[in-house]
Design brief:
By secondary structure, the chain is α+β, with helices and mostly antiparallel strands. Helices cover 31% and strands 27% of the residues. It starts with a strand and ends with a helix.
């Protein structure tokens, strides 16, 4: 079963699919509009043996798998900071509580999931958001966050932003180099003695390691096909990954609603009151 509907309907459709014998469920991101529905969805699939894949397709992208390999091998040294941007046109439409959020949720879920994939689980967040024009209520047009992983990596995130273009980009800075990756491009930098300043080192671009270009959606659905065939497959983008993504996003909203207070993860679903946070 493939679920590609409005976010607020994902969980109910997925639960009914599992209850009626679906063996594999591929669900569009985000997994649900709130943590309770996400938990119900995951529990139903587990109870009935349905395998659940969440469409965070960058986990199936060979480029990001190569980047993870490079980071794990120390290609840029110890990772210190990450700048993550997913810039778009801001929120469009009428803010309804059942939608679960604005650009940070509906586009930013990809970035949050990629952050977890590359750098590990998220420990704390500090978040903020703003709206364009004179809007005093409703979902955000732009969200920002300072995210710290359990491994101590600091990630500075911006999502939305009311731009007239779309950008998805990670800038990963290590102690001995840097990697930049976005939609359709990637760069790799290492250090050398500075040509400009005595006693300093500069970044110099190096050829990005070769990788085989494969369609990530094809790879995702090939995984689903193998699951249907009864093969023992480790799912790259699980229901739990989907849950953790919206948990981090709603924690950012919660931090903003509390005046940019630090929020520790995991968070209890009862603490996320979107109606109050967004004045709906």
């Amino acid at each position: 079963v493939i679920i590609s509907t409005w976010t607020q309907s994902h969980a109910e459709i997925g639960i009914r699919a599992a209850e009626n014998g679906a063996r594999v469920v591929v669900c569009e991101k985000p997994i649900a509009s709130n943590l309770r529905d996400a938990s119900r969805f995951i529990a139903s699939c587990k109870a009935r043996g349905a395998r659940l894949i969440i469409n965070h397709e960058r986990r199936y992208d060979v480029r990001y798998q190569k980047i993870k390999e490079m980071l794990d091998d120390g290609a840029i040294g110890e990772i210190r900071t990450v700048h993550a941007v997913i810039l778009s046109g801001g929120f469009r439409g009428i803010s309804r509580i059942e939608q679960g959020g604005g650009p940070l949720l509906h586009d930013g879920t990809h970035m949050i999931d990629l952050i977890r994939y590359l750098f590990g689980d998220i420990a704390t967040v500090i978040g903020d958001f703003d709206r364009s024009g004179n809007r005093r209520s409703g979902f955000e047009d732009r969200a920002t966050a300072w995210i710290r992983t359990r491994g101590g990596v600091d990630v500075f995130l911006e999502a939305g932003g009311a731009r007239d273009y779309f950008v998805f980009e990670l800038g990963i800075s290590g102690t001995r180099g840097k990697i930049i990756a976005g939609n359709g491009y990637q760069s790799f930098f290492t250090t050398r003695a500075s040509r400009h300043y005595t006693g300093f080192r500069d970044l110099v671009e190096k050829p990005f390691p070769r990788f085989r270009r494969l369609n990530y959606f094809t790879r995702e659905y090939s995984e689903a096909k193998r699951l249907l065939a009864g093969q023992d497959v480790s799912i790259r983008s699980t229901g739990l990954d989907g849950y953790r993504a919206i948990e981090a996003i709603h924690a950012i909203y919660l931090s903003a609603g509390r005046g940019r207070k630090i929020v520790e993860l995991p968070v209890k679903p009862d603490t996320i009151r979107l109606k109050e946070i967004f004045s709906l």
